[in-house]
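User: Sequence recovery, please. Input:
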């Protein structure tokens, strides 16, 4: 099987490395050898082994009848969408790590693949090296999925871990992440939750079998989390993580990305550093957890190559994926119930307690303020109550 890799950045070069170093394993599991015939990139790579197979023109790949499979690791929506669509329409399978592409066009590309008896695989688009896509569509098929809850971004998880362990403020922890190469120079997509939003949109779409548009998902980042919040979390025995969450309940679907406090009873409590963890709850299965390296060159490339093996071993056979492009209307966040932790000045402590059912006062020894831990409350009611508190100093949702 001759393949082409579109994009020779971190993941694309990782795919080439995995295919080279594990060529015997790949051939054994795929049923035939896999050879990289082309690498597409705008740049040149003098001295790199791919310089002899490098092309700057996608049409050269498209017109070569020997190429049977495309690996798309370019990132971004365009021109990745046009290239992938053209490949599928020519009867070639495509394996992609591109979460933006999958979140926007995944359902459409699956339908195109079906029409041409080929496949569009995207295991590496969520969770890096963690196998989560294939289990959702091929393994957890006897259950109604009730909840997906995931730490889906290694950068933000690293930052929050540093804040918890070292007592650092957000800006200091972010700088550490950037110095270590875990965060981009412009970290907006990570710290504002946009990256996790696209990933939970993909997972929610697969769970619900319809298109969940990421633009419809309530998204909140970690930039307002402070070192003081972690003092209270430690006092309560909680951790603070940012989750992508989808809840399917009573015929309604809620989805959000937001920081949340969790107790030691939560299976994701100990997922620290740059690692990811995803919990899936089925109505018969109960909870099952997926954990591992959520990013990184070789873990993500390994997931891409696992798709290559699947595509080669099932060539001329379409693998069914239930994902209807019809948009799913998410239920209003106003009606979603959550518990909250929030901080107020001492002067408003008593008023705040009366506002929320089963409210508990938390004293972490912070001068001039107290923490309040609420019982379950609808988002709309919580928002209205918070607006009445002039000394509100932050609030974080709490998972049961």
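Assistant: Recovered sequence (400 residues):
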């Amino acid at each position: 099987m001759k393949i082409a890799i579109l994009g020779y950045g971190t993941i694309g070069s990782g795919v080439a490395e995995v295919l080279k170093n594990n060529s015997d394993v790949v051939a054994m599991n795929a049923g035939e050898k896999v050879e990289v015939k082309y690498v597409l990139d705008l740049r040149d790579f003098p001295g790199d082994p791919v310089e002899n197979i490098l092309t700057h023109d996608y049409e050269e790949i498209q017109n070569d009848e020997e190429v049977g499979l495309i690996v798309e690791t370019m990132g971004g929506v365009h021109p990745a969408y046009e290239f992938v669509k053209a490949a599928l329409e020519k009867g070639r399978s495509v394996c992609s790590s591109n979460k933006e592409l999958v979140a926007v066009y995944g359902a459409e590309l699956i339908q195109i693949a079906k029409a041409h008896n080929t496949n569009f695989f995207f295991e590496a688009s969520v969770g890096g090296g963690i196998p989560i896509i294939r289990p959702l569509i091929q393994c957890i098929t006897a259950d109604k999925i009730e909840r997906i809850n995931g730490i889906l971004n290694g950068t933000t998880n690293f930052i929050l871990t540093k804040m918890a362990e070292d007592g650092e403020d957000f800006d200091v922890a972010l700088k550490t992440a950037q110095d270590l190469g875990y965060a981009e120079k412009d970290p907006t997509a990570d710290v504002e939750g946009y990256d996790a939003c696209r990933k939970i949109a993909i997972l929610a779409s697969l769970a619900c079998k319809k298109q969940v548009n990421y633009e419809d998902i309530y998204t909140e980042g970690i930039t307002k989390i402070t070192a003081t919040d972690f003092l209270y979390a430690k006092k309560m025995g909680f951790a603070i993580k940012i989750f992508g969450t989808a809840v399917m309940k009573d015929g309604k679907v809620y989805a959000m990305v937001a920081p949340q406090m969790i107790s030691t009873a939560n299976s994701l409590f100990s997922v620290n550093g740059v690692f990811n963890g995803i919990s899936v709850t089925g109505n018969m299965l109960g909870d099952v957890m997926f954990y591992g390296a959520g990013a990184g060159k070789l873990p993500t490339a390994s997931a891409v190559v696992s798709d290559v093996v699947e595509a080669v071993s099932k060539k001329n056979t379409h693998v069914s994926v239930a994902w209807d492009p019809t948009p799913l209307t998410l239920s209003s966040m106003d009606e979603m119930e959550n518990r909250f932790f929030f901080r107020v000045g001492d002067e408003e402590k008593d008023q705040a307690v009366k506002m929320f059912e089963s409210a508990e006062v938390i004293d972490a020894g912070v001068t001039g303020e107290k923490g309040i831990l609420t019982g379950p409350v609808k988002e709309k009611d919580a928002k209205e109550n918070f607006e009445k508190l002039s000394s509100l100093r932050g609030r974080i949702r709490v998972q049961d």
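The two ends are 49 Å apart (CA to CA).
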